[in-house]
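dumping this here before i forget
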Amino acid sequence: MKWGLRVGEAWVARGAIASAEARKLGRDWPPMPPGTRALGSNVGGREVQRLVYEACARHDLLLSLIDSRGEQLGVTSGYRDPAQLGTDRWAALIAAHGEARVHQLVVNAGTALTVDALRADGFFPGGLIVPGPALMRRSLEGGTAQLRRTEGGFDAFPKSTPDAITTGSVQAALGAIARMCEAMQAEGIAPERIVLSGGGAPELAGRLPLPVALNDNLVLDGLVLISRAS
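structure:
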């Protein structure tokens, strides 16, 4: 769970907390300037949502949560049901389009790996969701009796089981991104860059086939744009 306090054009405070510790949210927030608005994106479920509302209330903030729409700030959703798209992905698409009006891939490497295509004109044709590298490794540890040591190093030709698992998880994520690049190329919208965020970004950044724009606050940047337009 990420949060940030934006004043003008600058982030004056930012932080993150594990969803499992959502009850602690807000304890390290600074005093809020008069007139502060709270805007959020929640894909963590009802209990997390309740705790976020409570944290905001303790700081006298009235929280509004965004929804995913058919069109907003120049981005148009290609989803059959636009409301089904996660609001974190929607905010990230809006931020990426606000940064650069080019064909691009918007990738978040978190617990899940999302790989979203975005055209230069703002149309979002669709995207992929697969387990992120860390989740792939945990699933092997929990579901395969003989694979208990799953954290190794990356090696093009792994020579130990931990290295094989770590390398395999990274290569699988890279493969999903590469296939979406190929799909865009086949449609005549070859991506010019990859916008990359999420805790797993460092594992992927140096191994991607296109220029990479790292932005670990992509969703927050999207929320800022949405807030300014509302």
